[in-house]
């Protein structure tokens, strides 16, 4: 029983030493297991390295394990798997249910369970407490000695939730943290690792439970080797927290304590920090970075650099594009393989879509090592919106989020049709349960009856409604009869099967594969498995519990939130795109670190989670050790910078944009200034100012598609400046000779001289578009004068703005206009004039007209809700006042109403205004005048045109001159022409 430390800074070959040591042991004639123990996420890479080092038939004795697979081996041998394993989604769902049940007993967090992300934070703090062996009882005990009232109440709530969770968990289940506790217990009875030798590699630190497992391994194994990324043993328990190797030195101290406590012998360590590190044998510059990046005082590299460079980009797009170009150069000119190259960033979420687009354009094979959330996947949206429809009373958003997933057995045209209908009529809630919809598509006060073409559309809408509402209502009816979660999960699964969701997903997966969208196909396959897994976890963890539909939907959503999905590398020779904190297992020959900006890399960290840094400090003073605080994590960012910059063996290029995608300025990271100090002659490039050197032009030549764009830019520049590098003439000739590129080249060159001058459309095409009948309303002329394109869209394409169920100013104007028109007709029918009526008659007549208009149109907005009914009452008062003001104005005027709603056009009271055009064709202006007044004096008559407006409108002669305000003058001309 012994321990041996293997010291080595980055690149010294610690993993290689372990592998070679294992290979050497395989020839010692013994049979005890040789185990390489690595972090879970690096087991695949470690197995590849091991297979490349040893013979295949020796794989049985030499194995790669993680703590998780080690536990599985031990449990299989000595038992321990009697309780079911609870996954993270089951854990979060159980925590939510517990908080709902004990909500009244919580003081600080009684209302927090409904806050976004709260359950995740509670799950994280419970995991942390378990990981550091803090029990609910110990937490409650501490609250008796803490003076801080806020923290005391917070810890009491956490302790209560934690204890209820442990109580529920240990009845039938075990979670990941309990596995390590059980592993430490069961290792004592395991014989398969008796006398084994372990090499623990790739860790910077361990949790208390992992230390306990290592303690048991030290007692059972012949030797435990531990690699530590550090210079040499510090030989002191006083470690400076600002030390680059603080974490690994602290790990060494704890392991030494364990050895002293258990009388484990300490073997002479292996020190690999001698000479040039193995990784940097071919690059003196990269070796210099490893030694002096964080050394104080720093040393300066006086030679010109060849392997390290810095690139300053205009924006993130040009930064990624330069990276793509340079990758092509490395592969084409320097003999690199794509698999030798890694692109890393601290903020992969910001870059991954851009990388995907640009690398695809450049024909670079790549794999993005990124896990994505599934909550926005159409399968998940289909399921979650299924409950949103019920809980949000068939709201527009929930219904059409459900329909637009593509799993509801409806064509897109049908969805668009019913969506327009629903929006126009404000359909939600119980209206979806109506047997038949008879709401109008377009409300017209002059045509209250439904037209034939409108009837056909409404019939089609009702057919679509049936396909939507019937299966959903059947599901809600069955779901409401569920006695517990188990039955509710069964009802949901049955519905998904009835909707043939598995078959639809299979078809989509095949479609994506045919389109070579393998990532998307893989995601859809994983998501369906996750859906089934979440339902299984719900049944296993809380199957007999009774819940409301709202609680069930929340539990389901929490379960889905816990899952992220990744992709499998589709090829062997491809560029790896990853985050800097996931690079430990990748031996890159060429490394591009992008996005090296201030606050991004190293990252600016903030307090997160339920326990603040202050809380942790107080708990530490009560001998409760927990995870690192924010200050420690900030120092660990320094170690992350160190490991990132030393992960490559031949080539390093660091880039940063000076602006983000919105144009906001970005500052370079402190890493940039540090490298410039250490390497005063470092190669620096930038595209902020474009250089026209031979090298720069050659670098812009890569693969056909992006090079074509560069060539077109060069030709355009030549057209302006009459200057072009000769290289682009050769490139142009290549495209001109290519049969596949020639048509595109012709179009591109034509585009260079495109002036965007609109040509006059031939007369025969105009007639095809607008028709032969040359009748125009005044508003059409005004529309054309204001914006010819708007005229084309409205009258040529016949495009209409989608009608929304609301009462906007234009609707108010139309409504008031029709009331005034009907009021005028009512006067005629009663044989009255405007001078005859009084205020009481106005009030009664307006009220009757408004009520009649509202009641005769099914589903009209002013009769749809108490709010709109109140608005209708207000409109009665407003309109009554307006009518009374008109009446009083007429009584005091010399003008008297001659006519109202006066139409001029064919078969109307007055003929249209005819205008002969320069080509001899004739157009007819038609329209309708709201009211015409007349004043007669002796042999003369004066005409006044009245146009009702609901807003404040004046006649501006400059608008008349430019054709923007023609209505009143043309109406007056129409009356005068007919009078003559």
The proportion of residues in beta strands is: 5-15%
CATH superfamily grouping of the largest domain: P-loop containing nucleotide triphosphate hydrolases
- The number of distinct helices, counting runs of at least 4 residues, comes to 36
- For the record, the CATH class of the largest domain is Alpha Beta
Mean pLDDT: 87
Helix content estimate: 40-55%
Q: How far is it from the N-terminal to the C-terminal residue, by CA?
A: 121 Å
The major pleated sheet works out as: 7 strands, parallel
Rg on CA atoms, Å: 39 Å
CATH-level-2 architecture of the largest domain: 3-Layer(aba) Sandwich
Poorly predicted runs: none
Short account of what is shown:
The chain contains 36 helices and 23 strands. With 980 residues, it is α/β, with parallel strands linked by helices. The chain folds into five domains: 176 residues, 3-Layer(aba) Sandwich (Rossmann fold), CATH 3.40.50.300; 88 residues; 195 residues, P-loop containing nucleotide triphosphate hydrolases (Rossmann fold, 3-Layer(aba) Sandwich); 188 residues, PCRA, domain 4 (Orthogonal Bundle); 59 residues, no CATH class.
What can you tell me about this protein's structure?
By secondary structure, the chain is α/β, with parallel strands linked by helices. The protein has five domains: about 1-80 and about 180-275, P-loop containing nucleotide triphosphate hydrolases (Rossmann fold); about 85-175; about 285-365 and about 575-685, Rossmann fold (3-Layer(aba) Sandwich), CATH 3.40.50; about 380-565, Orthogonal Bundle (PCRA, domain 4); about 695-750, no CATH class. The chain contains 36 helices and 23 strands. The strands form five sheets. Strands 1, 2, 3, 6, 7, 8 and 9 form a seven-stranded parallel beta sheet that branches. Strand 2 (about 35), helix 2 (about 45-55) and strand 3 form a beta-alpha-beta unit. The chain is globular.
């Amino acid at each position: 029983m012994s321990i041996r430390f293997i010291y080595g800074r980055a690149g010294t070959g610690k993993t290689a030493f372990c592998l070679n040591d294992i290979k050497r042991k395989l020839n010692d004639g013994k049979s005890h297991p040789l185990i390489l123990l690595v972090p879970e996420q690096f087991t695949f890479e470690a197995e590849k390295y091991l297979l490349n080092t040893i013979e295949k038939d020796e794989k049985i004795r030499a194995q790669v394990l993680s703590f998780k697979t080690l536990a599985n081996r031990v449990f299989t041998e000595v038992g321990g798997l009697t309780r079911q394993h609870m996954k993270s989604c089951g854990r979060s769902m159980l925590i939510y249910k517990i908080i709902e049940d004990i909500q009244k007993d919580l003081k600080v967090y009684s209302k927090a369970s409904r806050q976004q992300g709260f359950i995740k934070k509670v799950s994280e703090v419970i995991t942390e407490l378990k990981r550091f062996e803090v029990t609910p009882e110990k937490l409650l005990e501490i609250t008796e000695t803490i003076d801080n009232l806020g923290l005391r109440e917070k810890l009491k709530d956490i302790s209560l939730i934690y204890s209820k969770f442990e109580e529920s968990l240990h009845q039938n289940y075990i979670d990941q943290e309990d596995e390590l506790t059980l592993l430490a217990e069961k290792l004592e009875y395991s014989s398969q690792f008796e006398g084994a030798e372990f090499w623990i590699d790739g860790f910077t630190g361990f949790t208390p439970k992992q230390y306990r497992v290592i303690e048991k391994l030290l007692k059972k194994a012949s030797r435990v080797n531990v690699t530590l990324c550090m210079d040499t043993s510090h030989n002191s328990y006083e470690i400076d927290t600002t030390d680059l190797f603080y974490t690994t030195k602290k790990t060494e101290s704890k392991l030494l304590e364990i050895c002293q406590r258990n009388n484990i012998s300490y073997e002479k360590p292996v020190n690999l920090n001698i000479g040039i590190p193995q990784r940097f044998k071919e690059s003196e510059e990269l070796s210099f970075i490893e030694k002096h990046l964080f050394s104080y005082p720093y040393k300066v590299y006086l030679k010109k650099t060849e392997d390290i460079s810095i690139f300053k980009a205009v924006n993130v797009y040009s930064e990624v594009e330069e990276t793509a170009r340079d990758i092509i150069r490395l592969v084409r000119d320097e003999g690199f393989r794509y698999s030798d190259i890694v692109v890393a960033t601290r903020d992969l979420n910001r870059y991954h879509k851009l990388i995907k687009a640009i690398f695809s354009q450049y024909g670079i094979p790549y794999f993005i090592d990124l896990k994505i959330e599934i909550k926005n996947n159409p399968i998940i949206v289909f399921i979650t919106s299924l409950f949103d429809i019920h809980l949000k009373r068939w709201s527009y958003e929930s219904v059409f989020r459900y329909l637009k997933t593509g799993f509801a057995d409806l064509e897109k045209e049908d969805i668009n049709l019913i969506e327009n209908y629903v929006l126009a009529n404000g359909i939600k809630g119980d209206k979806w349960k109506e047997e038949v919809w008879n709401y109008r598509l377009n409300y017209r006060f002059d045509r209250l009856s439904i037209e034939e073409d409108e009837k056909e559309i409404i019939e089609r809408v009702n057919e679509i409604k049936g396909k939507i509402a019937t299966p959903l209502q059947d599901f809600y009816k069955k779901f409401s009869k569920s006695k517990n979660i188990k039955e509710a999960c069964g009802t949901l699964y049955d519905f998904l099967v009835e909707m043939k969701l598995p078959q639809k997903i299979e078809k989509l997966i095949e479609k994506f594969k045919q389109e070579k969208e393998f990532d998307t196909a893989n995601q859809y396959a994983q998501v369906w498995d996750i859906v089934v897994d979440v339902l299984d976890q719900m049944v296993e963890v809380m199957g007999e519990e009774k819940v409301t539909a709202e609680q069930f939907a929340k539990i389901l959503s929490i379960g889905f939130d816990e899952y992220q999905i990744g992709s499998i590398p589709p090829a062997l020779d491809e560029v790896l795109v990853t985050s800097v904190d996931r690079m430990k297992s990748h031996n890159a020959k060429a490394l591009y670190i992008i996005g090296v900006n201030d606050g991004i890399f190293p990252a600016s960290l903030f307090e997160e989670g339920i326990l603040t840094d202050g809380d942790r400090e107080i708990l530490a003073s009560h001998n409760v050790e927990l995870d690192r605080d924010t200050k420690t994590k900030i120092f660990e960012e320094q170690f992350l910078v160190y490991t990132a910059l030393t992960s490559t063996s031949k080539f390093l290029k660091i880039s940063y944009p000076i602006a983000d995608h919105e144009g906001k300025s970005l500052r370079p990271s402190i890493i940039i200034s540090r490298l410039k100090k250490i390497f005063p002659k470092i190669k620096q490039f930038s595209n902020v100012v474009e250089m026209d050197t031979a090298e720069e032009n050659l670098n812009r030549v890569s693969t056909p598609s992006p090079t074509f764009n560069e060539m077109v830019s060069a030709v355009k520049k030549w057209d302006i400046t009459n200057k072009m590098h000769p290289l682009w003439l050769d490139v142009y000739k290549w495209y001109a000779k290519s049969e596949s590129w020639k048509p595109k080249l012709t179009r591109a060159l034509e585009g260079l001289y495109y002036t965007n001058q609109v040509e006059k459309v031939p007369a025969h095409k105009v007639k095809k578009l607008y028709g032969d009948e040359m009748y125009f309303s005044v508003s059409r002329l005004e529309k054309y004068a204001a914006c010819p394109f708007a005229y084309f869209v409205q009258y040529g394409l016949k495009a209409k703005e989608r009608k929304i169920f609301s009462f906007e100013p234009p609707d108010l104007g139309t409504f008031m206009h029709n009331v005034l028109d009907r009021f005028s007709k009512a006067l005629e029918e009663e044989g009255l004039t405007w001078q005859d009526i009084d205020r009481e008659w106005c009030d009664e007549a307006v009220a009757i007209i408004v009520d009649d208009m509202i009641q005769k149109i099914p589903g009209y907005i002013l009769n749809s809700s108490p709010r709109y009914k109140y608005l209708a009452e207000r409109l009665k008062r407003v309109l009554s006042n307006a009518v009374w003001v008109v009446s009083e104005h007429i009584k005091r005027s010399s003008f008297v109403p001659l006519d109202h709603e006066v139409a001029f056009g064919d078969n109307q009271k007055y003929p249209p205004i005819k205008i002969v055009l320069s080509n001899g064709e004739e157009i007819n202006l038609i329209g309708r005048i709201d009211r015409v007044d007349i004043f007669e004096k002796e042999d003369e008559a004066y005409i006044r045109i009245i146009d009702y407006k609901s807003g404040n409108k004046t006649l501006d002669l400059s608008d008349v001159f430019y054709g923007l305000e023609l209505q009143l003058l043309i109406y007056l001309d129409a009356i005068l022409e007919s009078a003559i």
